[in-house]
Design goal:
Residues 104-498 form the AMP-dependent synthetase/ligase domain. GO terms for molecular function: acetate-CoA ligase activity; AMP binding; ATP binding. The protein is built from 21 helices and 33 strands. The protein is α/β, with parallel strands linked by helices and 679 residues long. 51% of the residues are buried. α14 (387-394) crosses α16. The protein binds 5'-O-[(S)-ethoxy(hydroxy)phosphoryl]adenosine.
Length: 679
């Protein structure tokens, strides 16, 4: 299977064919993991140099690691990897495979599985992908886009989205993908933050049998006063298999508004460009993309990833953690609008010349067998999804799974939230038939790629634990109160001790906030915002967010964003949003809302508030409980005590903690009496 075979020599010690000047093709034994892990920590320059050698560079870096994690030093937080290297991400994802082996041009790069199973799927070869990317890159160039320009991408889950990302990477433009569920307001906020002059979108998307208007949302976004930079909107046409879709998509197309001189159909533009577009050699530390993620406070953070380190990291993690072998078919259900889609639908798989499935739809449409039918249809070997999806599927009769074969599956993966042991077992036993190992991968938008994860079959698994750190990742539990690092076994807040190449370098044009959020809480460490327990055996158990970010169905939602949306409603005077445990979605969203005088707390208003939140942030954000509360618990200085609200909704009302600073303790009793969670 792999090129580095392991044998036991006559003295009984373990040896490997790995020659120490390059990384092995796969990690075959726990001893190999331990040896390489030790090297990655003791000599990161040597380890990551070997990892970088897996890629093709115009100029191989002479400097490998140059990082400072400590915000208290004169230099301050600065992260540079491979800083004098020159490389192109798109070239590494497509061209080089074909240059090395012309037959690769005929091999499948992407399998597109449309929303409706009866629509024809497509297979895109590496050769076809290259041509499409070059041509689309030329369309971008024709519209004046050059190295360093920001390009906002607001697309459904289709192949064209991957083409758009790769085309940006080819010419050195910085992409900023905004998930297609976000509202016009959220898109406008993200466009204006990074000042993109161009938006790539689609006339509409199709999901779960429904048409999702995208272009019209862009029209609204671009018309908003804060959105002043957009000169061009490129519009892909989604035009296959529409006869199968119940919604009236053609109606949507005919009612599209068009601004001449600003809006362009991509299929028209493609007619006017040629096939030749050389990749732009980029410095390793040139930005590759911005991806906005929710923070505990204020507006979304523009997480900035750069070129050489990011690709080195996602490429290596994809190869080792999925133990990917040539020819295997890999499917990740994440949308390209999130980091999982960036790293493990597009860049990780393609840089390894993998076959990656792009699935337009949802796991429950047309029924809950959908994923397993896709597995059988495309003979998928590796399947990667979120615990939320698993929990929603396991709520149905097992026959939806067992009526499918799933014999092709070799490995299963999860990401996005802690997976509860019950869901883990169901995934393992029912979906994987007890045959397939599971990789529970803990990581974040900020980390670029997998951080804590099993490598298949090297060590025992415990359902619910992401197990051990990947190469180069030094985890550290820190005590919240004392700020002291704790040796394992320990429980506390999860930090990372030193840099790894895939980590975000900054927040776009806001390095100060980057340092404040990730490096000031525990000086000398990267702070993840997650709680974690490391047990005696070294296994890591993630306990969830410790800040004001909710993780609902795998989506991160800042409570501050929802609060600010709620108070934009004319009837609301104040709002406080907290999460509570939910069996399927990981967390539910609980909104305490204080109304203005003379506003009646009627049912209609609840619907109205829900609509306000969805209109302002996006359709994937949904208050589960709206509790009209005449008063909120506050300190004497007027600060809402969210800690107490969290206890009420958990509910854990006998451990409210210190309430001595409360202005009016009766407020808490009243909330406990009226909360649906404490009834
Ligand atoms: C959570 C997604 C437990 C965690 C890649 C993290 C997880 C946040 C896991 C990042 C996991 C992700 N086990 N929790 N395997 N994976 N999380 O930025 O709270 O969308 O901080 O990146 O998801 O979410 P993000």
């Amino acid at each position: 299977m792999a090129s580095s075979s392991s044998t036991n020599n006559s003295t009984g010690t373990h040896t490997t064919a790995w020659d120490k000047s390059s990384l092995p093709d796969q990690i075959e034994t726990f001893d190999d993991y331990k040896r390489l892990y030790a090297l990655s920590v003791d000599d990161p320059n040597q380890f990551w140099k070997m990892a970088a050698q897996r890629l093709d560079w115009y100029q191989f870096p002479t400097k490998i690691k140059n990082t400072e994690f400590d915000c208290r030093t004169k230099r301050g937080v600065e992260i540079k990897w491979f800083e004098d290297g020159l490389i192109n991400v798109c070239y590494n994802c497509i061209d080089r495979h074909i240059e090395k082996d012309p037959k690769a041009a005929e091999k499948t790069a992407i399998i597109f599985e449309p929303d409706t199973p009866t629509e024809t799927h497509h297979r895109i070869t590496y050769g076809e992908l290259l041509l499409s990317v070059k041509k689309f890159a030329n369309v971008l160039k024709k519209h004046g886009i050059k190295k360093g320009d920001r390009v906002t991408i607001y697309m459904p889950m289709v192949v064209e989205t991957c083409i758009a990302l790769l085309a940006c990477a080819r010419i050195g433009a910085i992409h900023s993908v905004v998930f297609g569920g976000f509202s016009a307001n959220s898109v406008a906020e993200r466009i204006s933050d990074c000042e993109s002059s161009i938006v790539i979108t689609s006339d509409f998307g199709v999901r779960g049998g429904k048409c999702i208007p995208l272009k019209s949302k862009i029209d609204q976004a671009v018309a908003m006063p804060q959105c002043t930079t957009v000169k061009t909107v490129l519009v892909f046409q989604r035009n296959y298999g529409l006869e199968n879709i119940k919604d009236d998509c053609s109606g949507q197309r005919s009612s599209l508004e068009w601004t001449d001189g600003r809006d362009f159909w991509v299929h028209e533009e493609l007619k006017a460009v040629d096939d030749n577009c050389p990749p732009e050699p980029m410095n390793a530390e040139d930005p590759l993309f911005i991806l906005y993620t929710s923070g505990s406070t204020g507006k979304p953070k523009g997480i900035l990833h750069t070129t050489g380190g990011y690709l080195t990291y996602v490429s290596l993690t994809f190869k080792y953690v999925f133990a990917y072998e040539p020819g295997e078919v890999y499917m990740c259900t994440a949308d390209v609008g999130w980091i999982t889609g960036h790293s493990y639908v597009v860049y990780g798989p393609l840089s390894n010349q993998a076959i990656t499935v792009v699935f337009e739809g949802i796991p429950t449409y047309p029924d809950v067998s959908r994923c397993w039918n896709i597995v059988d249809k495309h003979k998928i070997n590796i399947f990667y999804t979120a615990p939320t999806a698993i929990r929603s599927l396991m709520a149905h009769n097992d026959s939806f799974v067992t009526r499918t074969s799933r014999q092709s599956l070799r490995l299963l993966g999860t990401v996005g939230e802690p997976i509860n042991p019950e869901a883990w077992r169901w995934y393992h036993e029912v979906v994987g038939g007890g045959r397939c190992s599971i990789v529970d991968t803990w990581w974040q938008t900020e980390t670029g790629g997998f951080m804590i994860t099993p490598i298949p079959n090297l060590w025992g698994l415990e359902g619910g634990s992401a197990t051990l750190p990947f190469f180069g990742i030094q985890t550290q539990i820190v005590d919240k109160e004392s700020h002291l690092p704790l040796d394992p076994p320990s429980k506390g807040e999860l930090c990372i001790r030193d840099s790894w190449p895939g980590q975000a370098r900054s927040l776009y044009r806001n390095h100060k906030r980057f340092v404040e959020v990730y490096f000031e809480p525990y000086p000398g460490y990267y702070f993840s915002g997650d709680g974690c327990e490391i047990k005696e055996n070294g296994y890591h158990w993630i306990t969830g967010r410790v800040d004001d970010v909710l993780v609902i169905s795998g989506h991160n939602i800042g409570t501050a964003e929802v609060e600010s949306a709620l108070v934009q409603h004319s009837g609301v005077s104040e709002a406080a949003v907290v999460g509570y445990p939910d069996r399927v979605k990981n967390q539910g969203m609980y909104c305490f809302v204080t109304l203005k005088d003379n506003v009646e707390p009627v049912e209609e208003l609840r619907k109205d508030l829900t609509k306000t939140v969805r209109d302002i942030i996006g359709a994937h954000v949904f208050p589960d409980i709206i509790h009209f509360a005449p008063n909120l618990p506050k300190t004497r200085s007027g600060k809402i005590m969210r800690r107490i609200l969290r206890k009420i909704v958990e509910p854990d009302i006998h451990n409210l903690g210190d309430t001595s600073t409360l202005n009016d303790p009766a407020v808490v009793d009243e909330l406990i009496k009226t909360s649906p969670r404490t009834k």
